């Protein structure tokens, strides 16, 4: 087991677990309402509705008894589900901050921001992954080597597009699930990041095992479902827009109060704290924490407080990409 952090999160964990409030993954931004589209029919996994009635009508990490072995496809044992996102800012700007006049920075900021398109990866927090931590905030990884996918051996493009007919998903992932220097998948392409994320995290989800699928199982059905679900959850957590609603936009000319960024994101996450990561004082990662009721593909995601303290200072840069 690995611990990302030590003492600080234990206090936060205690607080988070003291007040379980069943809520669905829905949030309001202005008049818009974003609700996770968890259409069960998209995923051919076991029906958990009977199991989830009665004593097992609980979110992960909140059960008071053991889950019967035969029901393991309907309850995630390592039940902290995190949808993680990158803000891969352009590090060149960090160097410019101290060496460029305020006037020149303002001009550059205008130029950079006006070059952002509406549906551009530049104005999007891109996908890092979907992780399942243990209830105490620690995590396991690479849990099931026999289930791993290999770009070299299996050709993930081939599996997605030719075997599963998921050309649209493939296109979306190619645009928004991007490798970068922060990913720990060095000198590699986007597909290597997808391979890494499923092998490291997806193989640790007990509700994603092949036995949880109904009908004739095709090898890597769980892998492709993992990718589809990750993209679906991410689509409902548009961090850039969440921040923009509060006037928090990428800037070369000002720093934001971490507390303001946290408040903006909590508003979009049922009031729960969202993890904000910084690299050299500038925002570079966002993690949304949840508990889960049911199967990882069809279950209900409940926002919970972050179990990891922010790595940012009281004032943060939010630099353009
Ligand atoms: C909740 O369920 C998990 C999975 O069966 C089990 O490991 C854990 O001990 C259970 N918690 C309690 C308090 O029984
Ligand atoms: C980062 O910003 C610099 C300065 O504007 C620019 O020359 C460079 O192309 C940018 N890098 C990327 C990857 O966009
Ligand atoms: C810019 O200057 C501040 C204050 O002197 C310093 O703390 C910071 O590390 C510098 N940033 C960079 C990127 O050099
Ligand atoms: C992987 O599959 C794609 C889609 O079928 C194909 O275009 C590509 O040539 C394959 N790559 C290799 C290395 O075989």
TrEMBL record:
Source superkingdom: Eukaryota
Molecular-function GO terms, alphabetical: ribonuclease T2 activity; RNA binding
Localization (cell): Vacuole lumen
Gene3D superfamilies on file: Ribonuclease T2-like
Keyword terms, alphabetized: Disulfide bond, Endonuclease, Hydrolase, Nuclease, Signal
GO terms of biological process kind: RNA catabolic process
Major location category of this protein: other
Signal peptide residues on this chain, from the entry's feature table: 1-18
Active-site residues (renumbered): 128, 197, 201
Protein EC: 4.6.1.19
InterPro entries (UniProt xref): Ribonuclease_T2_eukaryotic, RNase_T2-like, RNase_T2-like_sf, RNase_T2_His_AS_2
GO cellular component: extracellular region; vacuolar lumen
Function: Rnase which modulates cell survival under stress conditions. Released from the vacuole to the cytoplasm during stress to promote tRNA and rRNA cleavage and to activate separately a downstream pathway that promotes cell death. Involved in cell size, vacuolar morphology and growth at high temperatures and high salt concentration.
Family as reported in the entry's similarity comment: Belongs to the RNase T2 family.
Database matches in PANTHER family: RIBONUCLEASE T2
Record protein name field: ribonuclease T2
Organism: Scheffersomyces stipitis (strain ATCC 58785 / CBS 6054 / NBRC 10063 / NRRL Y-11545) (Yeast)
